[in-house]
Amino acid sequence: MEMTRREGLAAVLALATTACSGNYSSPVNSVGAASTIDSLHKLAKAKGMRFGSAVGAGHSGSGSFRNTGYASLLKRDCGILVAENEMKWQSLRPDPLSFNFAPFDEILAFAEKNNMATRGHTLMWHRPQWQPSWLEAYDFGTNPATEAARLLTTHITTVTDRYRGRILSYDVVNETVMEDSTLAQTAISRAIGGTETLVDLAFQTARAQLPDAQLVYNDYMSWEPGNEKHRAGVLKLLEGFRARGVPVDALGIQSHIRIDTYDPSTGTGPRQEREWRKFLDEVVAMNYDILITEFDVNDQALPGDFSARDRSVADYAKAYFEVMLDYPQLKDVLAWGMCDSYSWLQEFKPLRTDGLAKRACPYSADFAPKPLHSKLAAALQTASAR
Ligand code: G3I
Question: What is the model's pLDDT at position 35?
Fold first, then answer.
């Protein structure tokens, strides 16, 4: 996703050892000592909203529910969770015939035990590099359209059957609009006869399965300069859904906001607020709800100093939330991780040129709340009720 614009398709993992320098041996102390910290979900709930985060099912030193310190943050701040990777085809579908539900099931069990809702991400991440390799190499046979439709509908039916009544909001399709505003193509979209056909069928299948669930198109178009064509492509897709009567309820706005250029006069980075509001206006005018599905702040262009950087990140986020919370259609806000150490941004290029960890999330590596947490709390406190 984001890597395509600035990183030339480089979803290259690199170890960010600097990110993991926090003291994880006493997370309970850190969290316990901070027990007076506002719960973001509690503040959201008071406004008819929900706050949540991505979580993984990995080992206890990762952004997983198995990490007791991290789990404490989730329990404090979240009323809704989303699996960072465990519902993707890459994780669920080791091969064309089987499903590996165990990791996702564990996340769902953790959420339910702690009275949290869970979102589904995602029934189709429509980029070739994020499909399982077997699917990109798949032999669709002599009637490729039929076989592609069978694969897609079997997947969606199986997943939604399994979690019926427990997952009420799905990112049915993720990132099918390219940054140049064209639609992505994959082996399965070519086999079925085109991207629109594939995407429409995904939503139609999900709706037939789940008449009352929230069906979301999720993407990363954003407010920074450079997103103009991507935004236009998403609007065109949303218009097409309405024209064709495709059952889509909401736009998931990932909100991986970023400071690519440091502007010393504002202390943050450039954004196109007017154009962004116009984009949002057009989305809601088509009767779509909006969600923030994957919020974090990429601080790669900010000077290294931690306290100044944390303030700038928080200010940038505050400006973003001032716009977003103006829209009563926004009811769910999910962070893509709560703690800097486990953020995908520590691993995906480009990394910071000074080699320091990014400070993208509400909590630092030692589970201490940062200015970003306070600014999110303040934004939710001043939001109008919905
Ligand atoms: O689990 C394997 C592990 O077995 C292996 O040893 C290791 C070696 O590289 O890779 C591990 O898998 C990685 C996985 O994250 C779990 O850590 C994948 O390589 C890596 O590609 C994957 O990255 C995820 C990425 O999506 C691709 O699925 C990130 O964690 C996740 O944060 C990111 O999330 C996406 C959203 O789904 C969509 N929007 C953008 C967002 C950020 O890129």
Answer: 55
